[in-house]
């Protein structure tokens, strides 16, 4: 099929690479992703470059892209007006049947509005395919999805979409057809549920700190109930990421406007407070005086496996440390370029390519991202490098009892 990709989000470039790999002719307006975090997505740049080399991906201007029979929209949430104008233009210039696949987070009801912008609804259909890709795993998730939610109300487009997605869904057990609005709502509902689970376990962990209870033991006890399980029950210093947060904020606004509910707004507010938890533990340990201190952060990405710091807890901690005049030393295996770009004027911030270099003369180590290389460090080297062996484990990555036996002062989240 001839497919035009519109947008520069992760979903747009992953679709470009995978649709080209499976025999389609894919048209884009740029040679490569613009954001450095997308360039760091495992395998993505290699797949795009291979697509260009094979001629399966071609760079065109917008006028040429209008002629495609399939249009894939993966645009930034702020560009809904541009998407509506685009659909209107596509609909007016189309010579035959067209299919518009909307993977953008424009809110509940947006795909219906895109459909209304097409002048010939019998021959021009909008399908909602919610973006369920996670940074760091996006290519594999697109190629081998565990489930697909498809919002389609046009029989002809349904058959065309089945043919397009067959390379990715032939062995799929969960392929659910629904209306466009139901597909959008489902994605928002999933994000909201996950956010509430994360918020709940963090609330329990904070309570466990006060009660002298190990939240890890409690979490394992909770997981024995099959109605609960272990998924998204890992206490820590808050969640980040742009897409996940956008969906939660979007649903929170809808709930507030239509139901006067503050449920998800409270979750978001509590999550912002949770991001500063490592700083508060450090502040209390040093009895509210951090003057002259040097603090090391291991990890600034919002999760392991990505180069993005979008809404990352590390940003909140760095800002709080900077306000106290602390010398900040940071290591991250992937996200330092993004951190440098986000905080170009932070004079108290130093970045290190090696994790142990970042520990020299440090008065505390704060673990902010659960990168695998932080899970089993050389503890003797940590003791020799640090001025004060204080570890604040914002991801409960390490074993508390062992560290305390080695001579560290250890603070976890509910441990």
From TrEMBL:
Keywords, ordered alphabetically: NAD, Oxidoreductase
Catalytic reaction(s) noted: UDP-alpha-D-glucose + 2 NAD(+) + H2O = UDP-alpha-D-glucuronate + 2 NADH + 3 H(+)
Enzyme class per UniProt: oxidoreductase
Pfam families in UniProt: UDPG_MGDP_dh (PF00984), UDPG_MGDP_dh_C (PF03720)
InterPro entries according to UniProt: 6-PGluconate_DH-like_C_sf, UDP-Glc/GDP-Man, UDP-Glc/GDP-Man_DH_C, UDP-Glc/GDP-Man_DH_C_sf, UDP-Glc/GDP-Man_DH_dimer, UDPglc_DH_bac
Keyword Nucleus found: no
UDP-glucose/GDP-mannose dehydrogenase C-terminal domain: residues covered: 296-400
Listed EC numbers: 1.1.1.22
SUPFAM superfamilies: 6-phosphogluconate dehydrogenase C-terminal domain-like, UDP-glucose/GDP-mannose dehydrogenase C-terminal domain
Keyword Oxidoreductase belongs to the record: yes
UniProt name for this protein: UDP-glucose 6-dehydrogenase
Organism of provenance: Marinobacterium alkalitolerans
């Amino acid at each position: 099929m001839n497919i035009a990709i519109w947008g520069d989000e992760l979903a747009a470039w992953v679709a470009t690479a995978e649709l080209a790999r499976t025999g389609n002719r894919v048209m884009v307006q740029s040679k490569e992703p613009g954001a450095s975090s997308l360039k760091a997505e495992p395998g993505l740049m290699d797949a795009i470059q291979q697509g260009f080399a094979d001629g399966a991906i071609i760079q065109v201007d917008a006028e040429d892209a209008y002629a495609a029979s399939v249009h894939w929209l993966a645009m930034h949430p702020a560009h809904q007006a541009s998407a509506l104008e685009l659909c209107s233009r596509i609909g007016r210039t189309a010579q035959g049947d067209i299919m518009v696949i909307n993977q953008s987070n424009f809110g509940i009801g947006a795909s219906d509005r895109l459909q209304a912008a097409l002048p010939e609804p019998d021959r021009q259909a909008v399908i909602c395919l919610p973006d369920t890709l996670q940074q760091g795993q996006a290519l594999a998730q697109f190629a081998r999805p565990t489930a697909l939610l498809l919002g389609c109300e046009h029989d002809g487009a349904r058959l065309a979409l089945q043919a397009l997605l067959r390379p990715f869904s032939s062995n799929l057990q969960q392929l659910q057809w629904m209306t466009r609005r139901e597909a959008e709502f489902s994605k928002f509902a999933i994000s909201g549920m996950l956010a509430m689970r994360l918020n709940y376990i963090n609330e329990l962990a904070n309570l466990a700190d006060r009660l002298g209870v190990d939240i890890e033991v409690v979490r394992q006890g909770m997981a024995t109930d099959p109605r609960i399980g272990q998924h998204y029950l890992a206490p820590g210093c808050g969640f980040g990421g742009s897409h996940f947060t956008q969906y939660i904020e979007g649903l929170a606004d809808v709930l507030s406007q239509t139901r006067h509910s503050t449920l998800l707004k409270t979750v978001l507010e509590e999550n912002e407070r949770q991001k500063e938890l490592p700083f508060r533990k450090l502040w209390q340990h040093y009895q509210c005086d951090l003057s002259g201190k040097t603090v090391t952060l291991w990890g600034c990405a919002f999760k392991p496996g990505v180069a993005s710091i979008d809404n990352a807890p590390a940003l909140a901690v760095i800002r709080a440390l900077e306000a106290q005049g602390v010398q900040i030393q940071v290591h991250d295996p992937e996200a330092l370029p993004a951190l440098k770009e986000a905080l170009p004027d932070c004079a108290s911030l130093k970045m290190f390519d090696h994790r142990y270099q970042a520990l020299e003369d440090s008065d505390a180590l704060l673990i902010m991202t659960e990168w695998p290389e932080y899970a089993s460090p050389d503890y003797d080297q940590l003791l020799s490098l640090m001025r004060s062996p204080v570890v604040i484990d914002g991801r409960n990555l390490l074993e508390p009892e062992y560290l305390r036996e080695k001579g560290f002062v250890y603070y976890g989240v509910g441990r």
